[in-house]
Amino acid sequence: MQDKRCVMILNAALPPGKATNAAAVIALTLGQRHPMLVGNALTDAEMRPSPGLITTGIPVLAATDEQLSVLREQCEQAEYDLVLFPEAGQSTTDYQALGDVLRQQLRQHWRLSGLAIVGDKKALRKLTAKLALFS
What we know:
Number of strands: 6
CATH superfamily: Bit1
Largest sheet: 4 strands, mixed
Shape: globular
Distance between the termini: 28 Å
Helix content: 25-40%
Mean pLDDT: 93
Radius of gyration: 16 Å
């Protein structure tokens, strides 16, 4: 994964609670899809184990609805691995209902709470260079 990078981009309009939720959901999916991002178990001075953490940083950036849509399209064309978190995911706790809602829309019409991209480090830096950190 040396030449790979992982970037998370959240909708800049999200309030803190929804932004935190979106980041957590996206991160869990990233860990499942890319277990090689997670390092070996860690230990403390008494050799008590803790699960491994991601071995590289994940910048969390902010983008507008329009920027998220453009990024999604660019990343799909470049065949980067994407984790999309549609806004509809925060309007229900029923996963089947979410699937039903999303199947009624083309992906390019999904309003995104956030996304994560895994791809070539240099290309992703160039793609996301103008985005600010989420705050």
